[in-house]
């Protein structure tokens, strides 16, 4: 996984490199500017040959300093370059000042309000980078023009094609930690943005959150040649793991941990379906079973050895008509579920999709969280009486398989791995008793609405206007929620954030080259809940299950393409697995 940095972490890395004599600030600025020019040519190779015109907008700090370097290098390449400054040249920090002076030896610096983009081929936004600490008033003309360029030149009245906009480090209006626009009292509601963002050393957390991905166009990272010392102590690595935000990427196979490849966990014993876990998806009343069936299909396709849907007895007929490889049993209420869970081979549960929110369902959540006592075994039915509502009605789970250890070992008998989604989340938000029963092998998968119901005070912080940087971010909110819930929280969206109570955090991005807006389709969240449950059944730890499932979910959407409906997601998994070499 790639580490994403906050502005403070980036500064610390830069300052350490300067302090140990590895490089000077001026040299870093030169590398940054050169990297931007190379990125422009890599992005638009047609700009390499010929003479073009650039307008460079520089700000009052080192981001502006990078802009002066870019201006100089493009001019040396033979381009026509105009530079405009936002701020006071006398107050530029030392390295930026040196580059300002170097540029002044080659050309003028205008006042930013005089910037004219007509006939510009490239506009460079070097106004603010990771140093933006409050909103700034974008000069109205600039604001207006930007708006036009970013809408593919609609209403563009210039003489040539509208310019490409390149943001240095980040679009200047955005906070690098949260990806949010820092607000001003400015009334005109236009927004800055870019076709290409060029950042340094590593992507920043904010590049993947909120407004930043849509504003920033494509993202390129320039290596500044800074060595970050390896941490050799285990303790240091643990601390770092809890501070850093990772970007979820292609899963790496760990030969010791559980893997997507179905292999024998016990080399001495032959593998069988129970070696790969048994997921139970609790579903809702007749007419509402689709969501549970989608989750179950997802859990099975992702590799759980067995998957059972547990529905109210009156919904068995409907589900039986729709399920084949997925098994089915009636689960009338929490007591019955507690009895079903006496089977220790059922090692992962999924509750929420299409579940309903009545008394039965609250009882199911309580039982799943280990709150319901297991009642004495029921008396066997009299001969000729209808079947018991906790008996399997389809398929078989007679295996002779060995009971699997629970994922949450050492936490008591109730501590199974549990995914709580949709209606189960709403029930948690209404019942402090259920919320308090959450434990570290639970995974909550709220979308924004569910998150706000569960954590209203945290959501309010996230919704409050972002005025100062670093602004409260979706990462902050998800970490806070996970710490409060005592379990993994996966906060959905195109920027899905996954956090564990110990501070570990990752972003599964469906942006940039992984954009898959067609994934926002009814039922896709149900499939995601099933994917997570399936991986938990396989023995993945909750944080890893959530990250891997979210990544595969987007991969399935990308592999299928537009036109996707939720049913397609599990069916796309085999193709995704083949491409991964699973
Ligand atoms: N730290 C690094 O890793 C490197 C940084 N470089 C560049 O340096 C940039 C960071 O430079 P700075 O720390 O100088 O920060 P910026 O250039 O982003 O901002 C300049 C200063 O403006 C002030 N400011 C913030 N918001 C303002 C507002 N709304 N109105 C007026 N003034 C405001 C702040 O004091 C801030 O420090 C990076 O984004 C990058 O472009 C590169 O030169 C090379 C390496
Ligand atoms: N713009 C988007 N691009 C990619 N994925 C998205 C986007 N918007 C939402 N998603 C994903 O789609 C899924 C929707 O889940 P959810 O909101 O629970 O819907 P449902 O309840 O219909 O299943 C989540 O996994 C979410 O991360
Ligand atoms: K910028």
TrEMBL record:
Cofactor: Mg(2+); K(+)
Chain positions recorded as K(+) binding sites: 63, 125, 172
YjeF C-terminal domain boundaries: 256-580
Record InterPro entries: Carbohydrate_kinase_pred_CS, CARKD, Nnr, Ribokinase-like, YjeF_N_dom, YjeF_N_dom_sf
Domain YjeF N-terminal: 10-232
EC number(s) reported in the record: 4.2.1.136, 5.1.99.6
Protein's UniProt keywords contain NAD: yes
Sequence ranges of Basic and acidic residues compositional bias: 382-392
Catalysed transformations (reactions): (6S)-NADPHX + ADP = AMP + phosphate + NADPH + H(+); (6R)-NADPHX = (6S)-NADPHX; (6S)-NADHX + ADP = AMP + phosphate + NADH + H(+); (6R)-NADHX = (6S)-NADHX
One of the protein's GO biological processes: metabolite repair
Record text on subunit structure and interactions: Homotetramer.
PANTHER family: ATP-DEPENDENT (S)-NAD(P)H-HYDRATE DEHYDRATASE, ATP-DEPENDENT (S)-NAD(P)H-HYDRATE DEHYDRATASE FAMILY MEMBER
Family recorded in the similarity comment: In the N-terminal section; belongs to the NnrE/AIBP family. Belongs to the NnrD/CARKD family.
Name of the protein described by the UniProt record: Bifunctional NAD(P)H-hydrate repair enzyme
The organism of origin for this protein: Neotabrizicola shimadae
């Amino acid at each position: 996984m790639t580490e994403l940095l906050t502005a403070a972490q980036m500064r610390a890395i830069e300052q350490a490199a300067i302090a140990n004599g590895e490089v000077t600030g001026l040299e870093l600025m030169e590398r940054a500017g050169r990297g931007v020019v190379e990125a422009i040519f890599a992005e638009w190779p047609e700009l390499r040959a010929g003479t073009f015109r650039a307008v460079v907008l520089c700000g009052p700090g080192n981001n502006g300093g990078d802009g002066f370097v870019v201006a100089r290098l493009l001019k040396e390449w033979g381009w026509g370059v105009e530079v405009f400054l936002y701020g006071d040249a006398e107050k530029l920090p030392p390295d930026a000042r040196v580059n300002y002076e170097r540029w002044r030896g080659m050309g003028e610096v205008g006042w930013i309000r005089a910037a004219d983009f007509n006939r510009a081929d490239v506009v460079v936004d070097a106004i603010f980078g990771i140093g933006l600490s409050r909103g700034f008033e974008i000069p109205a003309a600039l604001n207006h023009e930007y708006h036009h360029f970013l809408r593919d030149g609609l209403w563009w009245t210039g003489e040539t094609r509208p310019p490409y906009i390149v943001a240095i480090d980040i679009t200047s209006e955005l906070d690098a930690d949260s990806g949010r626009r820092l607000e001003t009292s400015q009334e005109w509601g236009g927004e800055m943005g870019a076709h290409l963002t060029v950042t340094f050393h590593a992507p920043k957390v904010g590049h993947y959150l909120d407004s930043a991905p849509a504003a920033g166009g494509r993202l390129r990272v320039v290596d500044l040649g800074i060595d970050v010392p390896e941490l050799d102590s285990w303790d240091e690595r643990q601390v770092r793991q809890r501070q850093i935000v990772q970007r979820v990427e292609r899963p790496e196979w760990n030969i010791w941990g559980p893997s997507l490849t179905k292999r024998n966990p016990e080399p001495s014993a032959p593998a069988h379906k129970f070696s790969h876990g048994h997921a139970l998806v609790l579903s809702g009343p007749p007419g509402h079973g689709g969501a549970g069936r989608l989750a179950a299909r997802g859990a099975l396709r992702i590799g759980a050895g067995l998957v059972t849907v547990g529905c109210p007895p009156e919904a068995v007929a409907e589900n039986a008509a729709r399920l084949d490889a997925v098994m089915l049993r009636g689960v009338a209420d929490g007591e019955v579920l507690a009895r079903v869970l006496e089977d220790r081979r059922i090692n992962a549960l999924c509750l929420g999709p299409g579940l309903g929110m009545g008394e039965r369902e609250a009882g199911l959540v309580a039982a799943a969280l280990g709150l319901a006592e297991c009642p004495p075994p029921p008396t066997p039915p009299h001969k000729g009486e209808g079947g018991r509502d906790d008996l399997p009605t389809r398929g078989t789970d007679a295996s002779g398989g060995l009971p699997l250890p629970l994922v949450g070992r050492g936490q008591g008998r109730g501590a199974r791995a549990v995914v709580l989604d949709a209606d189960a989340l709403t029930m948690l938000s209404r019942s402090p008793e259920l919320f308090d029963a959450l434990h570290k092998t639970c995974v909550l998968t709220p979308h924004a609405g569910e998150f706000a119901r569960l954590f209203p005070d945290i959501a309010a912080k996230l919704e409050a206007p972002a005025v100062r940087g670093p602004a409260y971010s979706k990462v902050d909110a998800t970490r806070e929620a996970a710490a409060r819930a005592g379990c993994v929280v996966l906060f959905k969206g195109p920027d899905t954030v996954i956090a564990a109570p110990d501070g570990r955090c990752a972003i599964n991005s469906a942006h940039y080259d992984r954009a898959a807006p067609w994934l926002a389709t009814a039922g896709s969240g149900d499939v995601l809940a099933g994917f997570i449950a399936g991986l938990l059944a396989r023995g993945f730890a909750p944080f890893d299950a959530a990250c891997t499932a979210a990544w595969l979910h987007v991969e399935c959407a990308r592999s299928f393409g537009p036109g996707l409906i939720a049913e397609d997601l599990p069916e796309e998994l085999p193709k995704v697995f083949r491409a991964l070499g699973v």
